[in-house]
Every structure is written in structure tokens, then in C-alpha cells.
Specification:
The complex is a heterodimer of chains A (113) and B (111).
Chain A (H helix, E strand, L loop, with lengths): L3 E3 L4 E4 L4 E7 L4 E9 L6 E7 L2 E5 L2 E6 L4 E6 L8 E9 L8 E2 L3 E6 L1
Parallel strand pairs in A: 2-11
Antiparallel strand pairs in A: 1-3, 3-8, 4-5, 4-9, 6-7, 7-8, 9-10, 9-11
Chain B lengths: L3 E3 L3 E4 L5 E7 L6 E7 L3 E8 L6 E2 L6 E7 L2 E6 L8 E9 L3 E4 L3 E5 L1
Parallel strand pairs in B: 2-11
Antiparallel strand pairs in B: 1-3, 3-8, 4-5, 4-9, 5-6, 7-8, 9-10, 9-11
The chains are: A mainly beta (113), B mainly beta (111).
Chain lengths: 113, 111
């Protein structure tokens, strides 16, 4: 079983739709969770960061963590064509020293005008 | 904002050439990373470094080496480039708990 699983998509939605992107993980030591957005031919940029369980909201974006189910989600409200990108989840364990983050493979999202 | 700068956006090299990819960060981060990204395979960690002159192998170190002589600079070296090393190479720096900052990437083509 891979440490982090992420559906690669592609996911295509109409403008204005609510988008749900998800990752599952197997390592119960993971405590901080991130979402990155990557536009075509660019490097990933950090979009959202959450620690432990719960929700975090930033504008149209909401990150949700359910540690009991080992499941994280990113919701995008009122999706726009400019949200078309690949979204990668990443996670790490607290007090893990220099152990690198573990990334999902990314979900490609297209928002159609 | 943290900046991670990669020296080249696009490179074309010949098989067998020695290739240097340079990365510089300006936020005094101890940790720096080199990834390659290929369609369907996601980000794969090649090497990382948590201090000057220190290096650790990632998941796919074969055919690569790295150099970290100064804290802000982390170089990836392809000793003898091969066509299967054609890829997007991404450098990153940062601490795990606060996320990484990535460079814009270098698209390397080996012919």
C-alpha cells in the first residue's frame, strides 16, 4: 500500500461548480497536511496548510482533515477557469527530523467556462 | 517571499554529457531537495540535503549526484546524461512543518 493515494483524474467541471479533491494515507504519524497547486510548466506553489484534524478556510478554498479515516480533502467553491491546474497533497510527521514530505501524484483539474 | 531560483528553464543536452542544474534559495533554509516530475509518476525525490556538505539519497538517486558547498546553493549533477533522464527537474527548500517552496523547474531534454 502506498503511503499517499491521490486520484489522478483528470477532473473536468463547469465554471461555478464545487470541486472536491481528496487524498488518503496510511501512516498514522502524519500530522501536518498541505495542498499545492501546480500550473502547467510551473513549479508547485503552497496553497493550504493544516495541522492535525479539522477544517481551514481561505477564501474559496477549504482544507479538511479527518485523521480517524486517514483522509484529507480540498474543496474549491465557485470554481473558476483560473483554478485549472494540478493539485498535489503532501503530508509529514511531527518530530520527523529531516524526513521529507510525502506527496500524492496529483489530480489534474479543468474548469470549463 | 521565499524565492527558489533554478538557473535554467529549458535545457537540451546530448547523451553522455555531464549536466549541472543549479538551485539557489534566499531564506536561509537548512533543507533543500531535488525532484523529478514525469507524467503519471508524480514527484520523485532524487536527493536532499539538510545541511552544508550533507546529502541524503531519495527514492531514485541512480545516475545523479549532488553538491551543497554553501547553504543557499544546491546543485544536481547528471554524471553522464541518458535519454531516460529527460524530465522536469524541480528544486525545493524549506522545513517540513511549514511546507516547501519550489523553483519554477528545469525542463531537460537529452537527445
Amino acid at each position: 500500500q502506498k503511503e499517499v493515494e491521490q486520484d489522478p483524474g483528470p477532473l473536468s467541471v463547469p465554471e461555478g461548480a464545487i470541486v472536491s479533491l481528496n487524498c488518503t494515507y496510511s501512516n498514522s504519524a502524519f500530522q501536518y497536511f498541505m495542498w499545492y497547486r501546480q500550473y502547467s510548466r510551473k513549479g508547485p506553489e503552497l496553497l493550504m496548510y493544516t495541522y492535525s484534524s479539522g477544517n481551514k478556510e481561505d477564501g474559496r478554498f477549504t482544507a479538511q482533515v479527518d485523521k480517524s479515516s486517514k483522509y484529507i480533502s480540498l474543496f474549491i467553491r465557485d470554481s473558476q477557469p483560473s483554478d485549472s491546474a494540478t493539485y498535489l497533497c503532501a503530508m509529514g510527521a511531527r518530530f520527523s527530523g529531516n524526513t521529507p514530505l510525502v506527496f500524492g501524484k496529483g489530480t489534474r483539474l479543468s474548469v470549463i467556462a | 517571499d521565499v524565492k527558489v531560483t533554478q538557473s535554467s528553464r529549458y535545457l537540451v543536452k546530448r547523451t553522455g554529457e555531464k549536466v549541472f542544474l543549479e538551485c539557489v534559495q534566499d531564506m536561509d533554509h537548512e533543507n533543500m531537495f531535488w525532484y523529478r516530475q514525469d507524467p503519471g509518476l508524480g514527484l520523485r525525490l532524487i536527493y536532499f540535503s539538510y545541511d552544508v556538505k550533507m546529502k541524503e539519497k531519495g527514492d531514485i538517486p541512480e545516475g545523479y549526484s549532488v553538491s551543497r558547498e554553501k547553504k543557499e546553493r544546491f546543485s544536481l549533477i547528471l554524471e553522464s546524461a541518458s535519454t531516460n533522464q529527460t524530465s522536469m527537474y524541480l528544486c525545493a527548500s524549506g522545513q517540513g512543518a511549514k511546507g516547501y517552496t519550489f523553483g519554477s523547474g528545469t525542463r531537460l531534454t537529452v537527445v
